[in-house]
Design brief:
globular; about 290 residues; about 75% helix
């Protein structure tokens, strides 16, 4: 097997990981960078690969929600109030990360080179998730606990009932996700729950918010670094993109089914365990 073929197979593997982890609160960036390091995949100093292959995951979400997106776009242009409010909320939630990202992208990218950052963000993020889900469940369906204390006190249970203040809170939470290992989906979902949005609704809003956020991030990185990519690096991005699209198609539907009847505790414990593994790796093996 040639060196180039092996490189592309690694890109394929990382693309699958991206799609599987993008929309669950475990940090796809942490997984891409850590696994990439473990298997010896080098994406260059600019880390364009890790950012741009997220487009595959986003296109998968857009495909899954294509009917709702068409209704949102049509309703916005026709002046339908509920769709206008939804569009307004997406813009409000998008702006904080857009501003912070434009001002601090250089410093944020520098954190990608420090695995120790993942130890803190993975473990702290997991502890915060456990804290949000900390109280006993208040209702059960079919013997499966499905409503946490946070959900029981939620004031927004549909996308249309989210207020602009709640949208802004989600947008501010998304800024925290720029730190590698935090998880964009985790930050926005937990931020939404703390702001009074029901878990399943916060999850769906996080999916929609990912569209403009990650499209903008990918476009920015391509414009800034695209000309410096080699042919092999560009091919690796294309391979990772397709793999991310395929795996995300499976995960998005699975996540929506999961949050209908479960809390995020399992992901919180996974984050903590992964953080401890990374700490042990840095302390004894790196």
């Amino acid at each position: 097997m040639s060196e180039h073929t092996l490189y592309l197979l690694k890109a394929l593997f990382l693309g699958l990981i991206e799609g599987f982890t993008e929309f669950i609160p475990v940090s796809s960036t942490a997984h891409l960078l850590l696994v990439g390091d473990w298997i010896g995949f080098s994406s260059g100093a600019s880390k364009v690969f890790e950012v741009v292959i997220q487009l595959g995951s986003i296109l998968a979400v857009m495909w899954v929600f294509r009917a709702r997106l068409a209704r949102l776009i049509g309703g916005t242009f026709s002046g339908e109030r509920s769709e206008l409010m939804f569009t307004r909320n997406l813009i409000i939630a998008f702006l904080p990360a857009a501003v912070v990202g434009a001002l601090a992208i250089k410093y944020i990218k520098a954190l990608f080179h420090h695995p120790g950052v993942f130890v803190v963000t993975l473990i702290v993020g997991g502890l915060i998730m456990l804290w949000v889900e900390r109280k006993p469940h208040l209702s059960k369906r079919g013997g499966v606990a499905d409503t946490s204390a946070a959900d029981a006190h939620a004031t927004a249970r549909t996308l249309e009932t989210i207020t602009w203040k709640q949208a802004l809170a989600v947008g501010c939470a998304q800024c925290l996700a720029m730190v590698p290992g935090t998880s964009r989906s985790g930050a926005t979902i937990i931020g939404g729950m703390l702001a009074g949005i029901q878990r399943s609704t916060a999850t769906e809003f996080s999916f929609y918010l990912a569209m403009p956020t990650m499209l903008a991030a990918s476009a920015y990185d391509l414009l800034r670094h695209g000309a410096t990519l080699t042919g092999l690096e560009a091919t690796a991005i294309a391979v990772g993109f397709v793999a991310a699209f395929a795996s995300a198609l499976v995960v998005v539907r699975a996540v929506l089914r999961f949050v209908a009847g479960h809390t995020y505790r399992v992901f919180a414990w996974y984050r903590i365990a992964l953080g401890l593994v990374v700490w042990a790796w840095l302390a004894f093996g790196a």
